[in-house]
Amino acid sequence: MGQIFLKTDEEIETLRESCLLVGKTLAEVAKLIEPGISTEKLDSVAEEFIRDNNAVPGFKGLYGCPSTLLTSVNEAVVHGLPNKNPLKDGDIVSVDCGVLMNGFYGDSAFTFEVGEVTVEVKELLNATKQCLYLGIEAAIVGNRTGDIGFAVQNYAESQGYGVVRELVGHGLGRSLHEGPEVPNFGKAGKGKQLKKGMTIAIEPMINMGKKGVKQLSDGWTIVTIDGKPSAHFEHDIAIKNGKAEILSSFEEIEKVLNKK
Ligand code: MG
Ligand code: MG
């Protein structure tokens, strides 16, 4: 996946600005999510907001990505392309967003409820977010990427969920994808050692059913093979001697959701 670049404290501060802008963008998206809105509309609002903040969409144009957001509905895990289809009551939509500002990428994702979702779906979203925070807790100097993956997998599987293997977290900085790879599964004590100054995106993708996924013929959308829903939450963090520092934020998003 590429080289690992350790960042100085100053670089981490610049990176943090990009990560925070992603959270603010996702909060703008959160305001609009309701039955009837299309993911294409969410995409155009996100792009305008990012450009108004003197940044550029991080995904658009990268690897041929046509959009600012990747929007994955229900059984779509990640990499769904925005389209004109209206979201329906009871859907979930995972919204992944990247920005590039002052030379650094931010990359964060949140799975939203559309209208009223089932208890089972709510539990999946809560568990996936919990997986993310357990992964972050394991991300300390001296631990390895396998400790993060183990923390995520152990909790997800204890709840009866499937952990997607094919897509992984990653280092980020001046490139959207740097080393190391950060799988959401693994063995404690294995993998690349975590060092102070590493900045990584941790992004569990957790399936309500089995772990298997496939890509649709659009060449982008990854869906669960069993057709059951999947959730995705992603934070960017900086590795420190003690607890990792979360650079992105869900605070603005959660403010919007709490008002709904
Ligand atoms: Mg992402
Ligand atoms: Mg990512």
Please specify the SSE layout and strand pairing:
Layout: H1 9-32, H2 39-52, E1 56-57, E2 69-73, E3 76-78, E4 92-101, E5 104-113, H3 119-137, H4 145-158, E6 162-163, E7 169-171, E8 178-182, E9 199-202, E10 205-207, E11 213-215, E12 222-224, E13 230-232, E14 235-238, E15 245-246, H5 251-259
Antiparallel strand pairs: 1-4, 2-4, 3-12, 4-5, 6-10, 7-8, 7-9, 9-14, 10-13, 11-12, 14-15
Protein model, in words:
The relative contact order is 0.19. It is built from 5 helices and 15 strands. It starts with 8 loop residues before the first helix and ends with a helix. The strands form 4 sheets. The chain has a 5-stranded antiparallel β-sheet. Strands 1, 2, 4 and 5 form a 4-stranded antiparallel β-sheet that branches. A 3-stranded antiparallel β-sheet has the order 3-12-11, with no helix packed on it. The protein has helices at 9-32, 39-52, 119-137, 145-158, 251-259; strands at residues 56-57, 69-73, 76-78, 92-101, 104-113, 162-163, 169-171, 178-182, 199-202, 205-207, 213-215, 222-224, 230-232, 235-238, 245-246. Helix 1 packs across helix 2 (39-52), helix 1 (9-32) packs parallel to helix 5 and helix 3 (119-137) packs antiparallel against helix 4 (145-158). With 260 residues, it is of the alpha+beta class. One magnesium ion binds next to loops.
